[in-house]
Specification:
Layout: E1 4-10, E2 13-18, E3 24-29, E4 34-37, H1 43-56, E5 61-64, H2 70-73, E6 84-87, H3 88-111, H4 115-122, E7 131-133, E8 136-140, E9 145-149, E10 161-164, E11 169-178, H5 198-207, E12 212-218, E13 221-222, H6 223-244, H7 250-256, H8 261-274
Parallel strand pairs: 4-5, 5-6, 6-7, 11-12
Antiparallel strand pairs: 1-2, 2-3, 3-4, 8-9, 9-10, 10-11, 12-13
Helix pairs in contact: 3-4, 5-6, 6-8
The structure holds zinc ion.
């Protein structure tokens, strides 16, 4: 059973889109190895992705996780044995909070009547990365170099972007999202997000000079899309700071926000619950 489809966004650089959570994962082909960018959300989904990768290439794989959220990281076990790269705090997050995240989302799927997904998630073994990045690392896939870059705290404190310089492509994880007809969703601004520093992280992402940006959810975008969401995101961060310090009411912040109400409420949630 497959719910995914591949698109080649540059020579030997593929994006696989999935109906489940509108997730986008990646595959970068080198002459000796291939690099799988994110692994889907449980052991069954990871196995499905691994089989889909094998339809495109027989080369040995390396895995990189853009961050510790289950939908990106929990399918990694299907690719073992292999090197699994991630930011060093991604390992910490998976080790400390992975089991709680698994229980939380299995419960959400069960409450939604999606019992097969809930069961698969509950039975999944969480695999911590064994190759750790602090700021950046370079991988040689054979005839192609890929750079792993931590652009600073944003969607989480350990986001990792995957830059393929010769192809002009960067996989941004959930640093960038592309909801139908818009940019961010309420899910973009979870409890791990650092809204104040997110716009600067997008600046670092843009400084890589990639033309094609693959978001963690939704269709690939270009650098102009990322540049265009930076200002509204900075405005949202300012609103949150103003509400947090009591200078602005929630109602006024909602009225002034460049984002939809549900997105704004999610982004302001910690301040709102405090006030
Ligand atoms: Zn995420």
């Amino acid at each position: 059973m497959s719910d995914g489809w591949w698109a080649e966004v540059a020579d030997g650089v593929f994006v696989r889109r999935h109906r489940e959570l509108d997730l986008s994962v990646g595959l970068v082909l080198g002459e000796r190895r291939c690099l799988v960018v994110d692994t889907r959300g449980d052991a069954a989904q990871g196995a499905e992705l691994a089989a889909a990768v094998r339809m495109l290439t027989p080369r040995p794989w390396t895995v990189v996780l853009t961050h510790a959220h289950f939908d990106h990281a929990f399918g990694a076990g299907a690719f073992l044995p292999c090197p699994v790269w991630a930011h060093e705090r991604c390992r910490t997050a998976l080790t400390r909070e992975g089991a709680a995240q698994r229980a939380d989302w299995a419960g959400r799927y069960r409450a939604a009547g999606e019992h097969a997904t809930a069961d698969a998630l509950a039975a999944t073994t969480i695999v911590p990365p064994d190759r750790l990045v602090r700021d950046r690392a370079e991988l040689d896939l054979g005839g192609r170099r890929v750079t792993l870059v931590h652009p600073g705290p944003a969607h989480t404190d350990h986001d990792l972007a995957v830059h393929v310089p010769d192809a002009g492509v960067v996989f941004a994880g959930d640093l960038v999202e592309h909801a139908p007809g818009g940019s961010f969703t309420a899910e973009s601004f979870g409890p791990d997000a650092d809204l104040a520093r997110w716009p600067a992280a997008l600046g670092t992402l843009l400084s890589l000079g990639a033309r094609i940006v693959v978001p963690g959810h939704g269709e690939p975008v270009d650098d102009a899309f990322v540049a265009a969401v930076r200002e509204p995101l900075a405005a949202l961060a300012d609103l949150r700071a103003a509400v947090g310090s009591g200078r602005l009411s929630l109602a006024a912040a909602l009225a002034r926000s460049p984002f939809a109400e549900d997105v704004t409420r999610a982004a302001l949630a910690p301040e709102v619950s405090r006030s």
